[in-house]
Amino acid sequence: MGNWDSYVMIEGNEQVVAFWNDPDRPAGKTLLIMGEGFDPRMNNVLKAFSEARLEFDCLSIVHGDRRNSPNTDMVAKNIELRTQLIADHSIPFKEYKLKVGDGKDLNRGVKFMNKEIADLITGYDNILVDISALPRVLYFNLVKNISKCTGKRNLFIVVSENAEIDKSITYRNFVEDLEPMIGFNPGIGLEAEPDRLRLLISLLGENGTVKWNKISEHFSPDEDFPVVPYPALDPFRTDSIIKEYKELFQREDAKENIIYAHERNPFELYKMLSRFIKSEDEILSKVNRRACYGIALLSSKLLSVGALLTAMENKDEVAIYNVISRDYGIDVRNFEEINKKSTTFLLWITGDAYSES
Predict the structure, then answer these.
(1) d(C-alpha 156, C-alpha 150), whole Å
(2) Are residues 211 and 243 in contact, defined by beta-carbon separation less than 8 angstroms?
(3) Which residues of the chain have pLDDT under 70?
(4) Which of 134, 156, 126, 129 is nearest to 41 (CA)?
(5) Which of 207, 206, 190 is nearest to 198 (CA)?
(6) Which H helix or E strand runs over 350?
């Protein structure tokens, strides 16, 4: 496996701030990259870092039309808070607007962004990508491409995690055309290599059955390997998710192939999936067969990082599937109260922690 057999992950709001305040932390100039949207977790990391008076610059990735976004009032409220935090703490701030064109093609915008990433991070020694309010296609590509041009830089992922908020968000108005995520499609199509065994690994989370059906229909797996969050903070969450995906678990292979992954440790998920892929490849090579792996993103952003690392390491045989929604349904009754229970995670992806001795 890759560099993440041993890893650095800090859990907890105070612990993350303490790590970044430590005199032994990575030295140099720091850039915090964040997104914007309706999610109340959008400003949690920015707020914690600014109130702790940490020194950093901030770059916001703007990926949509704020005036026509779903839940416009919530987006405006989050942007107002961000503006206040930036002003109150005199944080150097700039925006990068995706070049999506008239067709609002997110993939086109990501392609342009990938070409400009090196310029966006020039002059910085430490890059923190806050994925709390970034769509998966954006942060998957940001992390992958920043890791290619880090040099002596340190790359981190930070995220404000809260399973209760995830449960309160439902997805609607899906994009019709489904293909592997841009940047994570190794070109293993059904027509190109029909002899490959197709194995679908589904990271399961709440409110994802429609997405899973779309992905399964497109990928046409020969075998299913569902990943269920366990252990979880909610002791009933695992059973609840298995019940929600009853169509999947009616398949004999899915029931036999369940993978249990700690809901708050993407590094451990990465290690399990990488071992699984290596083992399957070795078995199939003995009978002159090959496999391609599809990973369906239906879980939290934190756990999805395990899929990102797996795909980065196994780039020639792993395709990432994510169904994009144009609209969201949200139970906002207790959003602000629930958000107070959110937990910050910091994951060290590349840099000094993994330097060869």
Answers:
(1) 11
(2) no
(3) 1-2, 65-70, 101-104, 150, 188-193, 331-333, 356-357
(4) 134
(5) 190
(6) strand 343-350
Alpha carbon distances (Å) from 214 to 52, 180, 218, 246, 265: 44, 12, 6, 15, 27
CA dist 40 → 21, 82, 280, 303, 342 (Å):
25, 11, 41, 19, 10
Q: In this predicted model, what pLDDT tens digit does every residue of 114-149 receive, in sequence order?
A: 999 999 999 999 999 999 999 999 999 999 999 998
Helices (H), the chain: 13-21, 44-51, 72-88, 106-120, 136-148, 163-167, 209-219, 237-244, 246-249, 252-256, 266-285, 301-313, 335-339
**Would the CA dihedral through 53, 55, 57, 61 be positive or negative?**
negative
- Provide the terminal-to-terminal Cα distance of the chain, rounded to the nearest Å: 18
User: At CA 149, angle to CA 9 and CA 90, rounded to 5?
Assistant: 70
Q: 272 by DSSP, 3-state: which?
A: helix
Other CB atoms within 10 Å distance of the CB of residue 318: 25
- What is the distance between the alpha carbons of residues 76 and 58, in angstroms, rounded to a whole number? 18
d(CA 207, CA 166): 9
How do 223-229 and 259-261 pair as beta strands?
parallel
CB 298 within 8 A of CB 212: yes
Sign of CA dihedral 173, 174, 177, 182: positive
For residue 189, what are the contacts with CB-CB under 8 A and spacing of at least 6?
none
Confidence (pLDDT) at 69 = 65
* pLDDT score of 106: 81
Q: Model's pTM, two decimal places?
A: 0.94
